[in-house]
Design brief:
heterodimer; A: alpha/beta; five-stranded parallel β-sheet; three-stranded parallel β-sheet; 10 helices; 10 strands; about 15% strand; B: mainly beta; five-stranded mixed β-sheet
């Protein structure tokens, strides 16, 4: 158990290290699905996230130069951008997308690789993901990789040199929470790079559970953006991540099955 | 000359640099990246690279996503 071995007495000294970068927040957020850029910015600010995912898409031709863009509201100078390969269904397209992202962001090399298997489930195609990861790592990228909760695939991706393994909790955008905590625990136990739950978180308790299991972070978008009040939910997620992390570091009590254990003295009772 | 920009056919005069092209379509002040016929053109080369008939350009930016 890599993390519980480190004695973290003070949670402020608990840095989150991904590849060559260091962060304080263990909540990573997406920038999609918000009502407008103002709401995007407000929710991200409230979440306390330092890493934000962005998608790479064709620019509109003939756009108005004064038209606001995501970059104006969530500037790369204030946040660490994590360009993704959302919408890519093979290794080639995802490699191409991330090379464009690196050019777009002046050589920025921290990226999120996700190669999807089909449009219905958005489940990762791990075979294409592995192929893409090999090329990208060799090409100098620091690859944070979205994958299934298969511990063997997670280990293969780590051995290739990915800087973070990001298994799904459940399907992207489903809000179904953590479906297989047991597999996540195996992945966490075997990994020497950060494990970040990516996809499927629906509400604050899901994020806390992920952190209590020993995940190093959680990446989410829809759980915040599609809440009735995204800004309030962003705050809830920030607290949930912190609470779950501290509970993990504090070390939970042992479970006692079939027997109660009183917290008040059993002696000195009035007779 | 006819070229392709983000999947659309566009007509431009000859002697156009890629930098001019990006200016023409109105993204030069934003963060963007340009690919021509599958190869990325580094920003430092945009002014030295001439657009040729039939070139296929992809010009991309960062948008909201998860």
């Amino acid at each position: 158990m890599k993390l519980s071995e480190q004695l973290v007495v003070d949670s402020t000294s608990d840095k989150f290290i991904v590849g060559s970068r260091e962060f304080n927040s263990r909540l990573l957020v997406g920038t999609g699905k918000y009502k407008d850029f103002k709401e995007t910015k407000d929710a991200i600010t409230e979440s306390g996230a330092e890493i934000v995912t962005v998608a790479i898409r064709r620019t509109n031709i003939g756009q108005n130069l004064d038209e606001p863009s995501l970059i104006d509201f969530v500037p790369p100078s204030d946040f660490t951008y994590l360009p993704n390969t959302a919408g890519c269904f093979n290794a080639e397209d995802s490699i191409r997308t991330l090379r464009l992202a690196r050019e777009l962001l002046e050589g920025h090399n921290l990226v999120k690789l996700e190669v999807l298997g089909d449009k219905e489930t958005l489940y990762p195609n791990v075979i294409e993901t592995i192929e893409a990861a090999k090329v990208l790592v060799k090409d100098g990228f620091e690859v944070m990789v979205y994958t299934s909760d298969d511990p063997i695939v997670a280990k293969i991706l780590e051995d290739i040199g990915c800087v973070a393994i990001m298994p799904l909790a459940s399907l992207i955008g489903s809000g179904m929470g953590i479906l297989n905590p047991w597999n996540l625990e195996i992945i966490i136990k075997n990994s020497s790079v950060p494990v970040i739950v990516d996809a499927g978180v629906g509400t604050a308790s899901d994020a806390s559970i992920a952190m209590e299991l020993g995940c190093d972070g959680v990446l989410m978008n829809t759980a915040i953006a599609e809440a009735k009040n995204p800004i309030m939910m962003a705050g809830a997620m920030r607290k949930a991540i912190e609470a779950g992390r501290e509970a993990y570091l504090a070390g939970r009590m042992n479970k006692k099955l079939y027997q109660g254990d009183p917290s008040s003295p059993t002696s000195g009772l009035i007779k | 000359m006819k070229i392709w920009v983000n999947g659309e056919i566009k007509n431009f005069d000859e002697n156009l640099t890629v930098y001019n092209l990006v200016e023409e379509i109105g993204v030069v002040s934003k963060k963007f990246a340009v690919e021509c016929n599958g190869e990325i053109i580094p920003k430092s080369n945009l002014k030295d690279t001439l657009v040729k008939e039939g070139d296929k350009f992809e010009i991309v930016g960062a948008v909201g996503g998860g």
